[in-house]
TrEMBL record, chain A:
One of its GO terms (biological process) is cell morphogenesis. Keywords: Acetylation, Actin capping, Actin-binding, Cytoplasm, Cytoskeleton. This is F-actin-capping protein subunit beta. Belongs to the F-actin-capping protein beta subunit family. The keyword Acetylation applies. Heterodimer of an alpha and a beta subunit. It comes from the Eukaryota. SUPFAM superfamilies: Subunits of heterodimeric actin filament capping protein Capz (SSF90096). It holds the Pfam family F_actin_cap_B. It comes from Iris pallida.
TrEMBL record, chain B:
Belongs to the F-actin-capping protein alpha subunit family. One of its GO terms (molecular function) is actin filament binding. The lineage of its organism: Eukaryota, Viridiplantae, Streptophyta, Embryophyta, Tracheophyta. It comes from Iris pallida. F-actin-capping proteins bind in a Ca(2+)-independent manner to the fast growing ends of actin filaments (barbed end) thereby blocking the exchange of subunits at these ends. Unlike other capping proteins (such as gelsolin and severin), these proteins do not sever actin filaments. Pfam families: F-actin_cap_A. InterPro entries: CapZ_alpha, CapZ_alpha/beta, CapZ_alpha/beta_2, CapZ_alpha_1, F-actin_cap_asu_CS. The keyword Cell division does not apply. The keyword Thylakoid does not apply. This is F-actin-capping protein subunit alpha. Keywords: Actin capping, Actin-binding.
Length: 257, 301
């Protein structure tokens, strides 16, 4: 299992889907571990009843069907798929609506879905998902990208409420790939995936959605920033180490912060 | 029985896939992992025997020759057979252990393996110029010039071809960072047209994997030409063209990086929302309200 995780850290994120399915076939006994520890590219399905797209993941799956957050129904249909309690479903509906606005303001397009379910400790878990195709053929407003994918997975465990506060544990993964292609510079591709965690105790007076939303917004900002500044910066530093720019023409490297 | 054979074949193919897709300088780490994941040393060994030569040749792996006479580049252009690689500068042939990535033996090249003295004049002059350029430009660079066609041409009147291979790798696994620069330049000396045509392929990769996995993968191709001159003059003008194109490519990579934060990356996710202020999580009721109104008025979908 450790070796499998190390392989996922080495193989290009662009090939992670292939790598994961290869590992699953080699390690059938570890399939649930692999699926929970390795984030895979998100798929989208069209919910004909509500006329909207939703994202498929392990959290809305039962057997071969997936629950749409819009209609609360499984696709393809199934009789007794698990559903959140009516109270939690109400929060889920609200979260989906608000998160769609959030997504549009930051992403100018894309698809989002939020799923919630009760856990065993009187708390609940939420999963916020975003998938954006930023290529010039899809939702890339500026048309710079030949290919561009951003996928964000935020899983928040919300602990049982104690007095006025609750404990929130957020695990976020961002996977991205961008390719530009033009005459003199050829094909330029950057791909990556990073995962981070954040733990907070917050007063519940503002509501769970407000608390979770703020954590996600802060986390996405941090992840985007470290990808841009630190991770891309490191690969750029590497290029400059391989072939240093002529002296006197020192390029400025982004400050790593 | 047939099923078992099928499963074994599949395991081997998977192991090969992981090995050949290892980033620059990381195949030994990938090998250790995949050996343990496959859990069958025999299958692993078979996969390694096939995957390592491919990987070494695509990554233009540089190996030190045992007698300290220099380095040999593992490339199809110098390949005599699966495990023997010709180094034109030292006129030696190195025997390579692909899986261990070491050079085990070296012997002087035979007369049949060497180019004619006419060709060697062009090749040697070009090698000297390119070496100087690579030495000045790449702190960890290695280069070699191979005659890929017409090595037995004895004098003017016939065409011949060279391949210039430049390989530079920087490996610092302790800093979670590896990278490589590879360029291959094809040089056609067209005696009949009195021109020299140049075709280049450059490829740069970088991998940063501290608490994450981010990879850069770029490549480009270009063309140029010059007039057919004496060995020394040809060497200088060919090297100048290479310097020009490689510098231009480096500049365009820099430009791609500079464009990232404000243009390219913005098409994936903005730094700030379109409203330019943080999202109003405190006041999300407004969104559900508008929604209700929209619904009541029967507008929207």
């Amino acid at each position: 299992m450790e070796a499998a995780m190390d392989l996922m850290r080495r193989i290009s994120p662009n090939k992670s889907e292939m790598a994961l399915s290869a590992l699953l076939s080699l390690l059938p006994y570890h399939s649930s571990d692999l699926l929970s520890q390795v984030d895979q590219p998100l798929q989208v399905y069209f919910d004909t009843e509500s006329g909207k797209e939703f994202i498929l993941c392990e959290y809305n799956r039962d057997a071969d069907s997936y629950r749409s957050p819009w209609s609360n129904k499984y696709h393809p249909p199934m009789e007794d798929g698990p559903l959140p309690s009516p109270q939690l479903r109400k929060l889920e509906v609200e979260a989906n609506d608000v998160f769609a606005v959030y997504r549009d303001q930051y992403y100018e397009g894309g698809v989002s879905s939020v799923y919630m379910w009760e856990d065993d400790n009187e708390g609940f878990v939420s999963c916020f998902l975003i998938k954006k195709d930023g290529s010039r053929k899809a939702d890339g407003r500026r048309g710079y990208l030949q290919e561009g994918a951003w996928e964000a997975i935020h899983v928040i465990e919300v602990g049982h409420q104690e007095e006025e506060t609750a404990h929130y544990c957020l695990t976020s993964t961002v996977m991205l790939s961008l390719t530009t292609e033009n005459k003199p510079s050829g094909t330029f591709n950057l791909s990556g995936s990073i995962r981070r965690q954040m733990n907070l105790d917050l007063p519940v007076e503002d509501g769970h959605l407000c608390n979770m939303g703020k954590m996600i917004e802060e986390m996405e900002g941090k992840l985007r920033n470290s990808l841009d500044q630190v991770y891309f910066g490191k690969t750029r530093e590497m290029v400059c180490t391989l072939r240093p720019p002529p002296e006197g023409l020192q390029v400025r490297l982004p400050e790593s912060s | 029985m047939a099923e078992e054979e099928e499963e074994r074949k599949q395991k081997k193919e998977i192991a090969k896939w992981f090995l050949t897709n290892a980033p620059a300088g990381e195949i030994q780490y990938v090998a250790k992992d995949i050996r343990s994941v496959v859990g069958d040393d025999e299958v692993y060994d078979e996969a390694a025997a096939e995957a390592f030569p491919t990987y070494n040749k695509t990554h233009l792996v540089v190996l030190e020759m045992p007698d300290r006479s220099g380095d040999v580049i593992v490339t199809t252009h110098g390949e005599l057979d699966e495990s023997n690689y010709f180094d034109p500068r030292t006129a030696h042939v190195a025997t390579v252990d692909h899986v261990k990535q070491v050079c085990t033996k070296v012997r002087p090249a035979t007369d049949e393996e060497l180019p004619s003295s006419y060709i060697e004049e062009f090749r040697g002059a070009l090698d000297a110029e390119v070496c100087k350029y690579v030495g000045d430009t790449y702190p960890k660079g290695t280069c070699s010039v191979y005659c890929t066609s017409g090595k037995d041409v004895e004098g003017p009147g016939e065409n011949f071809e060279f391949a210039i291979v430049i390989s530079a790798a920087k490996l610092s696994p302790q800093n979670f960072c590896n990278g490589s620069w590879r360029s291959i330049w094809n040089v056609e000396f067209k005696d009949d047209m009195q021109v020299v045509e140049l075709r280049g392929k450059m490829q740069v990769g970088a991998h940063y994997f501290e608490e994450g996995n981010v990879q850069l993968d770029t490549n480009t191709e270009c063309k140029d030409s010059t007039i057919f001159q004496s060995p020394e003059d040809s060497a200088v003008s060919i090297t100048n063209m290479i310097r020009h194109h490689e510098t231009e490519y480096m500049t365009s990579l820099e430009a791609s990086y500079l464009n990232l934060p404000d243009t390219t990356f913005k098409d994936l996710r903005r730094k700030l929302p379109v409203t330019r202020t943080l999202f109003p999580w405190h006041n999300t009721l407004q969104f559900s309200l508008t929604r209700d109104i929209t619904k009541e008025l029967g507008i929207g979908k």
